[in-house]
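Bug #77: duplicate submission created two jobs. Keeping one. Sequence:
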Amino acid sequence: MTNPAIPTDAQAEPFVSYEYAQVSAPKSLEPLYTDAYRSLGWTVEATDGGGAHSVRIDLKRDREIRSRSVIQELQRKAEGALARITQLERSRKTVPTMVGIVLGLLGCVPLAISVFMITGGAAGLVSTGLGAIGLLLWVAGFVSYRAVKSGRASRIDAGIAREQDVIATAGQQAARLL
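Kept job's structure:
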């Protein structure tokens, strides 16, 4: 008598060897990452919100894929493009923030000098002028943040579109090979 829990030779499925990978991605780019890896033959096993701004994606793929070395080279291209997209997305706010902070800090210098002049008894036109310059630099920091952010947006969007084209091309080439 045979045990139904143990498959017989007729029921046994062929053995498949898998390779596994874990990828960390920004939460906002998770769909792009999962689509890119799926197009390269990976199956998404699970996703885990690893941190406040990132997610861990668990992947698996058949080790016996045809043209493995070509697929791996396409994967390297796609991963490079994903990394550049991540960097571009980060710079969307980082550069304008730095410009605003620098102008704000520069505004603190004339304001501080103005306050020291007033407390030292040298209140007058010079201290008022320095105070006004400091306040103008603070306002310039706010205005420049918005201007730099909107000015960079079109360049960043164009760069992201180019990198998405690289990912799409790699995925299309991989699909022909898989």
